[in-house]
Amino acid sequence: MNAHTTITTPIEAPSADAPLEMRQAWCAMRVSALTADDSSEALPDDVRASQHFETELNYCKLDPQEYDRQTRVEG
After folding, report:
1. What is the domain partition of the chain in residue ranges?
2. Is the distance from CB of 74 to CB of 33 less than 8 angstroms?
3. In terms of Cα–Cα distance, which of 7, 59, 11 is closest to 37?
4. 52-55-56-59 Cα dihedral, nearest 10 degrees
5. Cα within 13 Å of Cα(60), Cβ side
């Protein structure tokens, strides 16, 4: 993702104690937007194409609000 790309998620991130289904839905939307540019990167033979998405999704589900803050700072 280039330095000028802005990722916006239309709804506020749910809290860490929100129902799992709500956190998972929001995180899938957010992580999909963040990892959309990853398909152009060459992957090592032992890495699945979906591995980065899965890792980010699992991390996000723990605390979507913190994940949102962190990815906005990094972006």
Report:
1. 20-74
2. no
3. 7
4. -170
5. 26
d(C-alpha 70, C-alpha 19), whole Å:
21
Q: What is the CA radius of gyration of the chain?
A: 13
Structure tokens that stand for 44 in this block: 């090592």
pTM recorded for the entire structure? 0.76
Residue 66 main-chain phi, psi, to 5 deg:
-65, -40
Residue type, 70: Q
Residue-wise pLDDT for 7-58, tens only, equals 555 689 999 999 999 999 999 999 999 887 666 667 788 878 788 899 999 9
CA-based nearest residue to 67, from 9, 19, 2: 9
User: Shortest CA distance to 14 belongs to which of 69, 70, 63, 72?
Assistant: 63
Token pair 């280039």: residue: 2
